[in-house]
Amino acid sequence: MKCIFSPSAIPAFNLAAEEYLFSTPGEYLLLYVNTTSIIIGYNQAVVNEVDLDFCIENDIRIIRRLSGGGAVYHDSGNLNYSFISDKKEAPLSADFLLPVIYVLQQLDIPAGIGKRKDLWLPGGYKISGTASHVSKGRVLHHGTLLYESNLENLQRSLNPEKRNFVAKATASVPSPVKNISSFLKEEQKETPPFDEFVNRFANEMITCFGLAGLTSFSTADVEAIEILRRNKYSQREWNYKM
Predict the structure, then answer these.
(1) Given pLDDT bands bounded at 50, 70 and 90, which one contains residue 167?
(2) E-assigned strand segments in the chain
């Protein structure tokens, strides 16, 4: 396995990076932080999931991903993880979350796995939504980790008006959420700054998988990802196709 931390915070670049690695032989863990954005599932309708007026007013980008599932909010207080490999376990297995659970426990965060392959804190608060994509013997599992995200923006941007409802699209399932940093403060535990949390998470993942360290994208990798970003994930035809 290679563990890669994306050099970019551009949402379209990082979703393109996921697709690029998905089509590249090998096993990968991609970590990235996006600027403020809404990432919708492959089969979702934008008007069903997003308050478009609020997103336009606040420069919140809307990007469609490869995987199904519900819409999620990203910003600079949210860490994203993607496991990409040849398909081994059953597609519906939640085993890909076991390393995440282990690493969070090492960081004194007692998360558990929910019925939708999501992660929850004690008290019934969701901190991570996940989704998967399986094709041609490859599998992508990815998820979010709310650490110190703007939860007001999250709630408002994912609160669409129902007047333009598209009936055949996949609907998101709303859940109560909480930032990991808020939980740690409430429990009077050490609450590192976001950058330190990200570094600790990455280092614990490297240790968990017995890796030598982080790997960087090559120049050729970045060039290929940029082509995919420009031609697909930056295009309205892809992002707003429903």
Answers:
(1) very low
(2) 2-5, 28-32, 37-40, 61-64, 72-74, 78-86, 112-113, 119-121, 125-128, 130-135, 138-146, 214-215
